Amino acid sequence: MTAPTDTTTRRGRGREIAVLVAWRTGVAVPVVAVVATGVFLLAAWSPFDPIYQYFGAGVFSAGDAVIANAREQLGLDDSVWTQLGRWAGGLASGDLGQSLSFRQPVSTVIAQRLPWTLLLVTAGLLVAVVISLVAGVTAAWRQGGWVDRGVTAVGHTLEGLPPFVLALGAIAVFAVAWPVLPVAGLTDAGAAPTVDQVARHLVLPAVVLGISQTPWLVLHVRSSLLGALDEDHVTGARARGLPERVVVLRHALPTALLPFVTVLGNRLPELVTGAVLVETVFSWPGIAAAVVTAALSVDFPLLAALTLLTTVAVLVGALLADVAVLVLDPRVSADG
Amino acid sequence: MIAARFVPVVLAAALALLVGACAAPTTGSGPADPASMVLADGYEPDDLNPLLGYGEEGASKLYDGLTALDADRQPQPNLAAAAPVAAADGLSWTVSLKPGVTFHDGTALDATDVVATYRAVLDPTKAATVASGYPMLRDVVALDPATVRFDLSSPFLLFPGRLTLPIVPAEQVAAPGPASDLALGTRPVGTGPYRLVEWRQGSSMVLEANPTYHGGAPAVRRITIVFATDDNTRAQRVAAGEFDGTVLPPALAKGIAGQAQGMVLREHASADYRTITMPFANPVTADPAIRQALNRAVNRQGMIDALLAGQGTPASTPVPPVLPEEVEPAAQFPFDPAAANAMLDAAGWVRGADGVRARGALPARFTLMYNPADTVRRDLAQAFASDARAIGVDVRLEGLGWDAIEPRMGADAVVLGGGNPFDTAFKSWQLLASANAADGFNNPGSYRNATVDQALGAALAAPDRATRAAELRRFQLAYAADPGMVFLTFLGHSYLTRDRFDGYQPVVEPHTHGTTWGPWWNVERWTPRT
What is the spatial distance between Cα B33 and Cα B209, in angstroms, rounded to a whole number? Predict the structure, then answer.
């Protein structure tokens, strides 16, 4: 990487980054508040009634008086604004509230499940990055060759394929037709979550999640590398008689990778959505599977916490990508 | 050139690294511990809190009630030292506690725990969902550390059967706020034969034998329950030998039993009815002739054979035929479409050109709602509509979620399910007494019949079993003369278990089924075969 050596430039860079972070954080607060309010309003207008979740099958033998009393005790009769105010008040004091569908404090639900989702998403991202870099570089290097044609065709096909179709296909192949991989849960039935167990159960969901995210990245790497190969410094390197491998990997690729970092940061929301589908299909006990439960049972506190978590993750992802580009590329100026 | 050829190799190597740890999964490698069991359940409990309905009927492995139901559905003392004793006026019951019982957390059980548990049910701020089952309970008091007294607002002969409610430590229900906030929901503390080791929500639950269980330590030392909600997936995994038992729809269970090695098919009768409500606010379903005719027009045995793989018994009233001491043979409806047609003709319902009857300007047409998540209800609704069509009644089907069904139950018919074999009089009272009209899902069609009300009231207040059974039979006759619903069938529940344990006892089941009931209702008394 070309790092600026001049100290004044570097100090300027540092200030630029600080301003960018401050500016983005300032924007994030109203965004998060609007999102939280939006979730509350959507949940309030949804046709689902949390009382069914509370009673379960008991609702069929419970009398109106018992049900009405439960509504009152749970605060379900209060207006949306009262509930929103109550939740926001709790949030201010560091209390995320109690999840109605999991019967646990929201913080416990998140603490139990978030690590598994992070593991899945990280592994999936790793798969996506490795595949897209290797395949994208190969395709650009031999533009128009059979690898390029294959990668482009497969990439465009996968773009239109929802992750759950991919997941069900993977199950059909690797669990039914050719049973080499476990397809459900974190471990075998009753087994302790050892590294070996979890690793084997992680393979299919992570690979499916990774591959589902790959098409955009592959096509992006390919096109930006093609652009970089036409640039002056690459032409110069070729003119100096450097081997093709060095030209592509040492001169063209770094330039092409900068926008890739930005794209990666902006793919985070997609990754989260993909994780929801993949976790549901593979019975992976992560936070994304809890999103579905929380939504179906109108679990206000959990739903809001999860939405905030996602919003923050997306904002942080975009910010990190921008900071990385700022640090890596001296030509970019910060937008702050 | 070389590099280009090298790339696919790199790609393959990268994938191989990712797939590194998995040459082949080690399913069923080595002999399983003979004293442990892996079950698959199609339904995962929302929580393990007795106040919210978990183990209400006493089949929980984690908790004990004061009484427990035996194979003949009779309450036997469990945490109670002896059978509960009623006062002469029937308005109070005294229960003495078994000495030396401890909870899983090591604390001793005494009267304060029993009082705290039942007071939590009665406490409106706890919003306990099981409260509807205790309308007769006024208060509970500790007479001394080993004796409690239950005070009732009216006599209730089968009160010992109500004492199956799991007892929890007093400190577990001390916290204010609704029951769903209690830690019990996910970290249960009981006196039961098993304690919870781990519950990974969404995937599995591990139970371990309680070595200090007051009934003696169970021989089956470890039970793992895997939650696999999809019936077909579960059936495939059972066929592959992954589990020691599961619950399956009857037809699937029959199919798998033939191909899975060492699995036994266990079919249990139940009091789990499926019925079609006939709302009284709807001019068609409120008509006595329509209700009588539909009850004779449905081919109940045909539905059981075609839709339930023969597993089930025809239902005409809420009292199941598996309870011979309570069922009234004269109150059963025959399958007789000719008689049904004659009844409608006599009542002035005339067939139109399209085959649908009408009386004046009112066509014989109503909407039937069902929850499409349950395939059995969907199939029964369709079968009912086609049988009704045959006698000129047009039934429009609508698949809806419960949220959408509930507000419309007063005017539109719905497929309902429920029932338990322990107290049919109470269940019938909830379902058909005018006192419960339009109260939640109890009597949603607002059926009213003075004779039915009177007979059910007398059955609930009966001083002894013989009188109670006689009043129940009188109720069934009164109901059959003026049916307020169309009962279709009592479902059979089908299970598969691996044949390597002794101690199985058949049992008649309630609406609830799954791995807490089924063959495993008394698993703490099972022994592994060596």
Answer: 14
